[in-house]
Amino acid sequence: MKPLAIFVGASLLVASLSGCASSTNETPTHKAKTSSCLVTYKSDVPGSPVKQLANDLVEAKVVYGLNVKEVVVPNNSGSEEIQSLLFSSLQGGCAYFLSAEDRLNTEVSLFAAKHQFMVALTVGGYSPANQPANVRWVADDLKSGAALAGFAAAAKATNGRVLLVIQDGYFNSDELNKAFRAGVGAFNEKTAAQVSVTKLSASDGNALQQRLTKVDGEVVLALFADNSIWKKLDLSSRTGAVFGSDLQLGNSIGTVDRAVVASVERNYNALVLRVAKDVLDKNFALDPVLMDPLALANGYIELRPLDDTVLDGTTSALLEEYKAVLVAQK
What we know:
CATH class of the largest domain: Alpha Beta
CATH topology of the largest domain: Rossmann fold
Number of domains: 2
CATH architecture of the largest domain: 3-Layer(aba) Sandwich
Order of helices and strands: EHEHEHEHEEHEHEHEHEEHEEH
Helix content: 25-40%
Number of helices: 10
Number of strands: 13
Largest sheet: 7 strands, mixed
Distance between the termini: 38 Å
Strand content: 15-25%
CATH superfamily of the largest domain: Response regulator
């Protein structure tokens, strides 16, 4: 295991962790020797829920004094190897395990079923079969967040054009692309507009910057990418709105480009803290179990505007109507 702050391959995450730790002034209410462990694969997937869980765990450390560690699983590990890593972590003081990858969620749930004095929080994928009482599961719904972003981006398109850029290897990129386009289509249908979407893939920030210099600055840009892409971009000359994801809008963690108007964000903070308190209070098992498939309805995913001026009243109302449609489809 390694300290969470040296999270492999995630420079934006490291910066976010530092910002999160320094922005909270609450005094810990527990003197905890217990640890939380974020279970991840060695190769991080940009856009997965892992980054947000890491940020939230650091706040749990500040609020509750909970130690924070990372369990790094080699990508091709078998079940026996993963279970061994989890057991070593348990012996090392981990009583709160978190994961957000389908295979790891399954392994963590299987492990929790054998060890009653611990809690697991798994995010995304499917709810565990025969979910143990000491496992909490919530859905991840980046797809709905992308749909909302598509709707809002279309509303901000003054010249009828939106450019969607998705980093190569981005989390659920195919579904994200379809959902974003569906959001644009929903806006067109609702308002009789004819906003079009052009999609680009990106693997290198410098190359993307060069391509963007050839795109009309009035075109709305929606960029789903991690910091390796964002940090290479200069968007200062763009007049069109820019939408992003996982930018932590509203938090005192660095700054974003002034062109950014909204970001698709995950909101696991309250849940991560609540489960941390359960662990420290030794409330391991729940009856009934926590199984929440309604990520959009219950606020685990949102399109977060930079401020109240981003969308006018009419557009905000239309966006809420569209959100209700998405919720009803779940």
